[in-house]
Amino acid sequence: MKVVLVTGMPGCGKEEFVRAAEERGFAIVRMGDTVRGEAARQNVGLTDEAIGGFAHAEREKHAYGVWAERTLPRVRGDRVLIDGLRGTAELEVFRKAFGNSLHVVAIHASPKARFARLRSRNRSDAPAAWDEFLIRDERELAWGLGNAIATAGTMIVNEGDLAAFRERAGAVLDAIGAGTDHVPQH
After folding, report:
1. What is the pLDDT of residues 138-180, one digit of tens each?
2. SS3 assignment, position 82
3. Are 107 and 6 in contact (CB under 8 A)?
4. Is the Cα dihedral 54, 60, 61, 66 positive or negative?
5. Which one-letter DSSP state was computed for residue 185?
6. pLDDT bracket for residue 38 (50, 70, 90)
7. Calculated CA dihedral for residues 87, 89, 95, 96, nearest 10 degrees
8. Is the Cβ–Cβ distance between 119 and 69 less than 8 Å?
9. How far apart are CA 183 and CA 86, in angstroms?
10. Which of 79, 109, 123, 160 is most buried, by CB atoms within 10 Å?
11. Would you call 30 exposed, middle or buried from its count of C-beta atoms within 10 A (0-12, 13-18, 19+)?
């Protein structure tokens, strides 16, 4: 079994990395779907603030690994990508479950690039202003996201052309899927 955890700040390019994994036959599990599903079950609003507040409250109430624990039952298959790692407590849950089969990939992009991408998505959780963007970043960093990114085995910088990023993402996924000891850094 190969399990890839992808992490990064909002708007860094995780969704493009997920698409590349899907194209290579990886099953996709989104931790955000786990959060949104539970939020819907509890009638929480759909805004970023409502869902983010709910996710945080659940972490405070049940421990910071709660979303990883709730996501684990959805992980099935030989090659799986889990999107949405937000902190070291979640990482530890996955490490305990998957051991040496686990590969952590972090995607990095500058705040300016990420803000522009988030604004262009036109999703309900897109920040309307720079201040909202910074608040979201601060919230996610408080969950330990920076530590999760810092401990990733592979880092891909996504500052330029989409085609070049997809090529780098594909090379990383191909190396992981092939089980090579050396996964390229980009």
Report:
1. 988 988 999 999 999 999 999 988 999 999 999 999 999 876 6
2. strand
3. yes
4. positive
5. P
6. very high
7. -160
8. no
9. 22
10. 109
11. middle
